[in-house]
Specification:
The chain is mainly β and about 190 residues long. It has no helices and 15 strands. The relative contact order is 0.10.
Length: about 190
């Protein structure tokens, strides 16, 4: 990626796991700074230009400046998790958990507004999670759990222009007992 290394956003969780807040730090470990203090903020993701951070708070997606100011809510579902920015910074993909407790991938404008459903898997699988945009923005790769006990994992790719989904790889593809999870794209 172009540019220089910048701040790192991360989460500190209380020892009992009940409280989560977002902090930033320089790559050399200096300049540690707490930027949320409500105990319910996590999953920070930097915008492509580094000017905003998307994050999860109280089961919705918010954005804020790197100093923790100008906090703005962009979803109102009460079931939104794991935000990730589109390469141009105009949209955010996220997991929206449906009434059955399983998630599908949705997108929303970074300014907020109506949400758009990308996947329709929650009714027939154990749900989708960990979305990541492709570098050109036309595809999203994500993780999915399947099987009667939700123990089988697959990585899928959805093409946004056609809604076509395909399995990229799944558990056991390289060897018995292998599990797949946490997909990510690299820019060519």
């Amino acid at each position: 990626y172009p540019g220089r290394d910048g701040k790192i956003a991360y989460v500190i969780t209380s020892p009992d796991g009940a409280s989560h807040d977002i902090w930033t730090v320089n790559p050399d470990g200096s300049g540690n700074r707490r930027i949320t203090s409500n105990g319910k903020s996590w999953h920070p993701r930097w915008s492509p230009d580094g000017k905003l951070i998307a994050f999860e708070r109280n089961k919705d997606i918010y954005i804020m400046t790197p100093t923790g100011t100008l906090v703005r809510r962009v979803t109102t579902t009460g079931r939104a998790h794991q935000p990730t920015w589109s390469p141009n910074g105009k949209r955010i993909a996220f997991v929206n958990v449906l009434a059955n407790g399983h998630g599908d991938i949705f997108t929303v404008a970074a300014t907020g507004g109506p949400i758009t459903r990308v996947t329709h898997d929650a009714a027939t699988t154990c749900g989708d999670d960990r979305p990541t945009w492709s570098p050109l923005g036309g595809k999203i790769v994500y993780h999915q759990r399947t099987g009667s006990d939700c123990s089988h994992n697959r990585i899928l790719l959805v093409t946004l222009s056609s809604d076509a989904e395909r399995v990229v790889i799944e558990d056991g593809a390289l060897g018995q007992g292998d599990m797949v999870t946490d997909p990510d794209f690299v820019a060519d």
